[in-house]
Amino acid sequence: MTTFFHVDRFNHLLAGQTIGLTTIQLPVGREEHYDLLFPSGVSRHGFYYTGLRANEPDPGMELLWEYVRRAAFAERPSRLTSMFAWRSLAEAELFKRERGLPDARVFEVEADPNAAFIANMQLLNSSGSLLLTSELAHAYWAGEAGPTTVNLSPPRWEVLIPLPAVIGVEARSDSLVKQNDGSR
Fold this sequence. Notes:
Radius of gyration: 17 Å
Distance between the termini: 16 Å
Structural class: alpha+beta
Number of strands: 7
Low-confidence stretches: 175-184
Largest sheet: 4 strands, antiparallel
């Protein structure tokens, strides 16, 4: 097992809590298609993006990434049925600062490194052409940094942890915490 670090952006986690999949209450007629896509349910992230809300930042991007995963990288865990974490406490703290989440807590999460998947979250962008978007999605699921022909930000390696997962102790940057070395 490897220790990863999850930022609790919504302040809803407790040490020892098991995070699992959930189902969505859908309007009549949509259940069959939803069950076809996610028969076991979705993660909190998946709930947000498949919850039929009209004001999502880019729900089509998540669906495109999911279809690329299913078509070419089916062995990878779905973004819509996983929780997200960082390889080190330092990376988690950086994410908190960048997202303006000073009060968000960070929890350790133990996961099988063979089941977790590490990908460059900077590739999650669908603002270019369809060809570029497809290339970015394929690079994401291949675990690559991304194409060198595009002006991308430096890689930010997020960890997808398939659910269910058990939340560990709260990690504190002011105490000695076992951290991963951050190497890829």
